[in-house]
Structure formats: structure tokens, C-alpha cells
Amino acid sequence: MKPLLRIPASDVPALTRALETALDGGPAVWPLPTAATPAPAAPAPAAPGPTIRSGGAFVPEQGPIGAEFGTNAPPEGNVTPVEVDDRIALVVETSGSTDAPKRVALSADALVASADATHDALGGTGQWLLALPGHYIAGAQVLVRGLVASTPTLTVPGERFDPSAFAATSAQLLPHVPHYTSLVPTQLARLLDAAERDPFIAAALTSFDAVLVGGQALAPAIAERAAAAGVRIVRTYGSSETAGGCVYDGTPIGDTRLRFDDGRIELASSSLADGYLGDPARTAEAFRSDRDGTRWYVTGDLGELAADGRLRVRGRADDVMVSGGVKVVLGEVERVVRAVAGFADAVVVAAPDPEWGERAAVAIAGDAGDEASALQALRTATDAAGLAPAARPVRLVVVDRLPMLASGKPDRRAIAALAAASAG
Fold it and tell me: Given pLDDT bands bounded at 50, 70 and 90, which one contains residue 94?
């Protein structure tokens, strides 16, 4: 067992140093979105058996970081383990597409394997610009890649993403080496908007040899704008459980393999996490081994191989509705909807329907114009895409701002509740 150090993600120099030490076998790192002051540790018995243990000492903690860990947790109050298995180098908390937090434990081997696979896929090492929070796996991996490449990682300053600060910092990157960064779709969209007004930002954005884009689906309209502007984007697919993106532009990188079980995507890779900290039941459900010892991560996504052999993610496995007896993958509907002008950020959810059971509702922030015309345009688009009639949107929910999770992803449960209320 070894210590688990909680480091504020906002202190990038301290986080970088801690990650470097962790990769060399030192204390593991847990990047936090805000600074936390640990209370004195209270002893507790060690947990038996599993590779990832919640035993050692526990620290009572307040706020959203606290949660019970396994059966060794005290019966009352929130607790945080301060020791982890010797293999672990990094712990990241993720809620995925839900509000149920998971603490993903990653070994140094997994982190380095992911970084090496990224550099191989991009054609070599280079210098990275950090534009994402370090408590997310995508941000932490930018720092890890810089450490593996032995090049200093620069950080975009400020608590909120600023295209001007991004451009100014990118101008300080080393010459004569490839330049890389990682963004979420919202950041890319803001940069593209700013680039239309500011040539300096446009030049900065197009100066990168690769701009990784992941975290959520990239709207076709944003991808088309990026291509037209000369931005070299790489669409990534992965999660905290795979140490970040492990499929680039639909193709597995490194030694990643993929397969499907009843349409659900499963991934095998040397970059897989050891499991969930203090949650052996959840770990056993998400990580399974074949008879030959190959470990597979069972994702929450549905997918298939397209005609060109690339992975196509259809949507979340838990985001399927049954309308009139027909199964509809809402992610496929959403992909078509977002390709319609004015709906790039729309979210599609299931809404109750007295006749069909469920029908598709489209939620959008701002002004959708004439709602009847907008709905007709969306129905025409789904028909043209070859989706079943049951997939046609029947309701438009217009709000000032879409509910979001702390991860920056749409809060689909809250949006579904709004859609249900609008039906009343």
C-alpha cells in the first residue's frame, strides 16, 4: 500500500510534479477540482482481497468529494481512503453520463501505455498545450504525455476557457517540434467562433499538428467548420477507464482491441484501469476477463463497425427508448438532429406518450423560431437518414439554458424531466 495524495488540479505545477513522482512508483495522485484540506486520519481495518483496496486510513470529508468506500467505511459520514495499492498512480473521479460518481484507479503502466499509443498514432512526440482541467482524465493525460515526451507542457491560464488566452499561450510553444492539444467540442466551437473575428486566434488554432477532440460527440456542423478552417482535428473515443482516448477517428490505437456484445462496445487494452476504488462489485461488472486472461472493459455505449471498418458509436446503451414496440437509439436520433442548422447543441431524450409509450423530444437552448416548422425539418432529417418512423421527434423543448452535469455534459435526466413536464 502507498499514500494517495490529493492535489488541487488548479495547481498545475504541483500536479505535474506529483504525476511525475507517481509514474516513477511514488505516491498516487488524486487531482481535485478544488483545494481540499485533509482532516487527521483515523485508522480503519484493511479491506481483504481485491487489488484495489479501500483499507488503510480514512479521512472524514465534507462536500461532493466524499462518498462511502466499500464495506470498510464507517457507518456514518463521508470517507476518503488515503492509501491505495502499490500499482496505482492516478485516481480520477468521473460521473460519465450520469450523476453517479466513480473513482477510477489507473496504474503507471496504463498511463504510459496510453501516452505511447497516442504519440505513435500522431506520428511522434511533441509539445502539449493543456486547455482542460487536470482532474479529468483528458487533462491529466496531457500532463502525462508531456512527461513521457520530456517536453514542458504549457497551460492556458484562467479559470474559464478563453480563446485569446489559448492563442497567446500557443504562441509560446517550442518551435521545430509538433504541437498538440486536447479539447472538448464546446471549446473547439468557441475557438472557431473567435477565429472568424480574430486572425491571431485562427492562426493559433491551425498551427497545431493535431487537435484531439473528445469527451462527448462532436456535432457534424462543428467538424465541418473545423475542416473548412484548416484545423487538423482527431476525434477520440475512450473514457477514464481506458486512460483516455483509445480509438482515434474510429480506429483503435496502440494494442487496443474492440468487440461487441449485443451491440455494446467492449475494449481491451494495456491502458485499462485496474478498476474502481473501493468498489469491487462495480469493478467486477465493468471489467471482465476471458479464459486466456484478456481483460475487457464493458462500456456503456452501443456501436458497430461501419463499412470502412471504423467504429461508429450509436449512442448510450441506457439511452434507448421503446416507441410503439420499436427500439430507438436516441444517440442516433441526436446525431441526425445536430446536423440540422440551428440544432448543433440539441439534446434528444425520451418523453412519455399516451399512445406510443415514448417518443423523441428535442431540447434546445435559445430560440428555435417557429416550432412547427422546426419540428417538421427535424422529422424530414430523420426520415432522410433512414431512421424508423418511431424515431421522428414529436416535441420541442426550448429553455434558456440546458441543465448540465459537473463534467460539462448534458444532464439527460434533468432534460428528460423537462420534456415530461412539457407533455403534461
Answer: confident
